[in-house]
Amino acid sequence: MDTKAAILALITACGFAAGGAAFAQGSAEADVEGEERAGGTPLLNKVWVRQDDDSGLPGIMHVFLEDGTLVSDSCWETYRLSRWQQVSKSEISWEEDGMTIEADIAALSETELVLNLKLGAQVLEQRFAPADVPYVCPDMVK
Fold first, then answer.
1. pLDDT tens-digit profile of 39-85?
2. Fewer CB in 10 Å around end: N or C, the chain?
3. Comparing C-alpha atoms, which of 89, 95, 81, 101 is closest to residue 43?
4. What is the pLDDT of residue 45?
5. How many CA atoms lie within 13 A of 23 on its CB side?
6. Is the peptide bond between 130 and the residue preceding it cis, with omega within 30 degrees of 0?
């Protein structure tokens, strides 16, 4: 390789490296901005699977999307899309079958979500953990 070709190759490689670094930095900045928009909460954009359900029906899950959509699903029932909102730092609500469900966030971390659903005079505690990936629902007896 002659000198001119070597210099051109070096300049090109440095240009791609600098562009890649700028792209990576831009991506990191976008991630931080996304976290700031989302309030930096581990609640959002994660599949939460119910852990304390005694019904024997597996796979009850919720996904609280940043855009205010709640995806609810299970292995035995079709999915539901609802509107949800953060009412306060410790309370959320969502619409379900024409009713507003209010819930206190009793615990929230990267590995645990505990909701206390206010169902009239009754308070129902529900415990969730992040979904294991991959996961496939088991065959249900019909």
1. 578 999 999 999 987 777 777 899 999 999 999 999 888 899 999 99
2. C
3. 89
4. 95
5. 6
6. no
Do the beta carbons of residue 59 and residue 49 sit within 8 Å? yes
Q: How far apart are CA 84 and CA 93, in angstroms?
A: 6
Residues in the chain, total: 142
pLDDT in tens, 126-142: 999 999 999 888 887 76
**Token pair listed for 87:** 């009412």
Residues 6+ apart with CB under 8 A from 129: 48, 49, 51, 111, 112, 113
Enumerate the domain spans of the chain: 1-37, 47-130
Beta-carbon-side half-sphere exposure of residue 137 (alpha carbons within 13 Å): 16
